Amino acid sequence: MPPSPRQMHLGVFVLGTGNHIAGWRYPGAAQSFEDLSVIQEIGRIAERGKFDLIFLGDNLASEPGMHPSFAARFEPLTMLAALAVTTTHVGLGATASTTYAEPYNVARMFASLDHLSGGRAAWNAVTSSGGKAAENFGRIHPEHDARYEVAEEFVDVVRGLWDCWDDGAVVRNHETGQYIDPAKVKPLNHAGKFFKVKGPLPTSRTPQGQPIILQAGSSEPGLNLAARTADVVFAVVQDMAEAQAGYRSLKERMPRFGRQGAEIAVLPGMMPVIGRTEREARDKLNLLQSFVNPANARSMLASRMGMDVSGFPLDELVPKDFPLPDTSHGFAKAMLAKAWREGMTWRDMFNLAGAARGHWVVCGTPVQIADTLQEWFDNHACDGFNVLPPYFPGGFDDFVDQVLPILQERGLFRADYTGRTLREHLGLPRPRSRLFQ
Amino acid sequence: MPPSPRQMHLGVFVLGTGNHIAGWRYPGAAQSFEDLSVIQEIGRIAERGKFDLIFLGDNLASEPGMHPSFAARFEPLTMLAALAVTTTHVGLGATASTTYAEPYNVARMFASLDHLSGGRAAWNAVTSSGGKAAENFGRIHPEHDARYEVAEEFVDVVRGLWDCWDDGAVVRNHETGQYIDPAKVKPLNHAGKFFKVKGPLPTSRTPQGQPIILQAGSSEPGLNLAARTADVVFAVVQDMAEAQAGYRSLKERMPRFGRQGAEIAVLPGMMPVIGRTEREARDKLNLLQSFVNPANARSMLASRMGMDVSGFPLDELVPKDFPLPDTSHGFAKAMLAKAWREGMTWRDMFNLAGAARGHWVVCGTPVQIADTLQEWFDNHACDGFNVLPPYFPGGFDDFVDQVLPILQERGLFRADYTGRTLREHLGLPRPRSRLFQ
Predict the structure, then answer these.
(1) Is residue A389 in a domain?
(2) Where is the Luciferase-like domain (chains A, B) (predicted)?
(3) B116, A22: Cβ pair inside 8 Å?
């Protein structure tokens, strides 16, 4: 019997009006990220496609001039709790900040979501790179490395709180009247540099033991945090060689933290634009691009770059020595690398930001797209993909109905779910509590 | 035509294992507060009974030795978001702390819940009276009046954030590509003594305009905060005269804040124990009391009183000069008043804490209970009740099937919903944003 083939993991990144900045203008596209029925439809498609997870970003400030789904949206945890009720298998990943929230509150909400969903919760731990959030919390935005120092401790506290209850602590003994076995509930008693948290949570050990940890950081501190604590990494890359290098860099640092490379699934963001012919796909992308409001694209690019770039001459090449500020996203690095590699102008950069907010766009027929994804996967550039449909639901339907069957036929993706929890989809064991070992 | 009669408002206070501390031991009772199907069943009963709202408390620390539903429960916002999906009319009220959360995060979550539920969200703003929460947030627990000073500003910031979007701000103009009208979104720019919050939220104006504000404080600062900002007050009272005095005291201070008494619905907590005969009801309560684990009841009483009372001789009368510490709940005042009025011993106090955590217990036939509720209502001791079934679902079924029809027959409660939002159930108009008037 041949060895069981390595299979991809797939997530879908959800912005209700589409990942393309003007996706809502595409004929038939969903019009709002504040519409539960849109999210529920996406949940149904994700489960029809046997996806590992639904992935929600977040922003702690409204940016009405940028992407419609950044301006008006639901809070991610409440939205996923609602979605948990109308889905049964797909993982539910939400973003919560390690800079502008309390570890006790974050730990509770994800523990609650894990119970409500029967073991499908995932926390995307971010340090909130934009400085605008600070103004909503009466704070000075900490600089990059300081945010990661806090994040390291924050993640440990959250995971420690998830460990305060052992399995089987709720005994409900009708004879004696004992409801909880106190020997199976311990405080955490964390006292660190940034946080002092006693615990336990008022929530018992969750179906997954520990909800899944997602991360998207690409800086050195970001990669180290991921290597030590992440289960899934959402990568921003535009090029296979670059993806391979990033993949190796992350996996090679894992043994330093006592972990194996297989314990993290690296999923680059990828916007599929699908046509029956290459021409049709190209026309579709051009139509989407024609819908872009230039001011929105400029705001998006400015946010990704961490600085106002509206003064640069549109038809000049992006200079090779362009300095990145501390407030830039990981996106900026990948976009600049692409610009230098391909000789892009600032106009090209605006278009790239407008299309997929700096993510990789793959435009072609279903077979061409499947070939590209397989090439990246077979060449260890990734462990799967975070799919960013340009608009919903059609753009996601197209991927699930046209590209996915090819991947399944090639044995690259599951034909059906074999487990119920996200941890099971990812092939990760359910951990025992570290406080009770 | 006679004037339209004044009608009661009804809430149901949910602890999944029952409001009685040993409710889970009652035959047929739900066994867990970490079971979505239990909550969904309660939601169905509440809507069958045309209740105004479901009311969830919270605790920011686990207290395994006290009430089972205080020890192991879901986080309230995620739980109500899940419940929003399987209910259509009943209001969804959750507790969130003004001491251990950020106003921006609280405002977002309730705005999100209001959208997800189509206008049924309510925020129970509490200052977190127990000091145990402080240990989970690395803080010194602020003393009572300082907590209320923070709460006053916190509530204003949250309501201000809800006002940052005007109705009609999301225009989605397919011709021009404009998604949001920037003239209809404003920052709050709050800079106060405790908080500095710019705004706006990344969530448009909600179905209710402003989610409903619930409060339960009974101290002078608590009553003032309620008189100024609350729509619904959850009162803790044991006696009609006491309820009348509290009711008057709250309503009479409202004009000071430019409001009318009718703008707040005062709902005392009330545990119904229902039998076909008075004897049967009494037996049911005795059976429930026989299930009480004395250690749990002592912990509950200690928490309510804000001090350890386990050393007091069980068969001695509660002394008239018993001093209440700053850390006591509003419960303590009502329980002590009852103890002095009725000559209760410390054993009686433990029983009272075990039964309904210090709330009023009404034991009798459906007609007796309906008579008592009507007496309180007609005599302006309240505007309705917050019903605390001793166990679920049976204890709630009994109220809805046996007591409610009597109230409906007497014209004291609605026969069906006439609106869709909680604000409509309460007879309150949808406010315009104060930032756009």
Answers:
(1) yes
(2) 19-376
(3) no
Residue B121 domain flag: yes
Give B202 to chain A, closest Cα distance, Å: 4
Contact A292 B177 (CB under 8 A): yes
Flag if B74 and A116 touch (Cβ within 8 Å): yes
CB contact at 8 A, A392 and A30: yes
Relative to beta strand B232-235, strand A265-274 is unpaired
HEC sequence for chain A: CCCCCCCCEEEEECCCCCCCCCHHHCCCCCCCCCCHHHHHHHHHHHHHCCCCEEEECCCCCCCCCCCHHHHCCCCHHHHHHHHHHCCCCCEEEEEEECCCCCHHHHHHHHHHHHHHCCCCEEEEEECCCCHHHHHHCCCCCCCHHHHHHHHHHHHHHHHHHHCCECCCCECCCCCCCCCECHHHECCCCEECCCCEECCCCCCCCECCECCEEEECCCCHHHHHHHHHHCCEEEECCCCHHHHHHHHHHHHHCCHHHCCCHHHCEEEEEEEEEECCCHHHHHHHHHHHHHCCCHHHHHHHHHHHHCCCCCCCCCCCECCCCCCCCCCCCHHHHHHHHHHHHHCCEHHHHHHHHHHHCCCEEEEECHHHHHHHHHHHHHCCCCCEEEECCCCCCHHHHHHHHHHHHHHHHCCCCCCCCCCCCHHHHCCCCCCCCHHHC
* Contact partners, residue A250, CB within 8 Å, separation at least 6: A223, A226, A227, A233, A264, A266
Chain B's closest residue to A178, CA to CA, is B293
Question: Containing domain of residue A139, as a range?
Answer: 9-271+361-436
Residue in B81, B115, B137 nearest the CB of A104: B137
Instruction: Flag whether A119 is in a domain.
Output: yes
End-to-end CA distance of chain B: 37
Q: Chain B residue closest to A23 (CA)?
A: B177
Q: What is the pLDDT of residues A349-407, one digit of tens each?
A: 888 887 888 889 999 999 999 999 999 999 999 999 999 999 999 999 999 999 999 99
Angle between helix A76-85 and A36-48 (nearest 10): 60
- Indicate the pLDDT class of residue B5, thresholds 50, 70 and 90: confident
Which residues lie below 8 Å from residue A146, measured CB to CB, with a gap of 6+? none
- Closest-CA residue to B273 (of B28, B18, B93, B43): B18
Number of compact structural domains in chain B: 1
pLDDT confidence of residue B1? 45
In a domain, B144, yes or no: yes
Residue in B120, B98, B101, B99 with CA at minimum distance from that of residue B111: B120
Task: Residue B149: give its domain's CATH number.
Answer: 3.20.20.30
User: Strand, coil or helix: what is B99?
Assistant: coil
Instruction: Please state the rounded mean pLDDT for residues B280-306.
Output: 88
CB contact under 8 A, A185 and B105: no
